[in-house]
Amino acid sequence: MADKIIVFIDLEATGLDTSRCDIIQLAAVCEESVFNKYTVPQQNLTESATEVTGFRVQSGRLFRRDSPVETVPIDDLLTSFIDFLRSFRRPVVLAAHNVMRFDAPVLTRVMKKYDLFLQFQQVVSGFLDTFLLSKRLFPGISGYSQVSLVRNFLGKSYDAHNAEEDAKMLQELYNVWRPDQSRVMANTFKVNEKYFY
């Protein structure tokens, strides 16, 4: 892991079905570097996604909690995300809470859909699931949702389900936990593992 850099990510989507949901917001954080972009989804948000994230689309524009949000086309969002990851000049591990069950399958599918998966694979060597990591580091604590972990370890609440805030809080959590290399490796998965397809 010493030759790699961990970038903390989160994405907000139109729903929880990883086989078809659209990305709405993608954010990434690595120390002081921040990437955060929004796109207007092609499909409708589920009621629960609107409730949880505060996003809605009206007349082709994206709003979060009734404020308009500046958006870019999805292919621009994806290519600028890859460019952001390339800027670190070494292989990247993308860390997200529940990455194996949500962020990785969605990102992998969408990168393939826009013929960007090869470029993505060239910069991303794997995914680190901080949900699995937290369960192994702290067995028996009361909750493993990111909101619970932030409350327990950082003593604060935050604007959850805003991808940028989620990614920033995850980085803070990780810095407090300071997991050893073996724990990190045990919860890191290669990008091209069959798991995603």
UniProtKB/TrEMBL annotation:
Residues 5-183 form the Exonuclease domain. SUPFAM superfamilies: Ribonuclease H-like. GO terms for cellular component: cytoplasm. GO terms for biological process: DNA catabolic process. It comes from Xiphophorus maculatus (Southern platyfish). The keyword Magnesium applies. PANTHER family: EXODEOXYRIBONUCLEASE III (PTHR13058:SF22), THREE PRIME REPAIR EXONUCLEASE 1, 2 (PTHR13058). Belongs to the exonuclease superfamily. TREX family. One of its GO terms (molecular function) is double-stranded DNA 3'-5' DNA exonuclease activity. This is exodeoxyribonuclease III. CDD domains: DEDDh. Its EC number is 3.1.11.2. Keywords: Exonuclease, Hydrolase, Magnesium, Metal-binding, Nuclease. Its cofactor is Mg(2+). Gene3D superfamilies: Ribonuclease H-like superfamily/Ribonuclease H (3.30.420.10). The keyword Metal-binding applies. It holds the Pfam family RNase_T. It catalyses: Exonucleolytic cleavage in the 3'- to 5'-direction to yield nucleoside 5'-phosphates. It is an enzyme of class 3 (hydrolase).
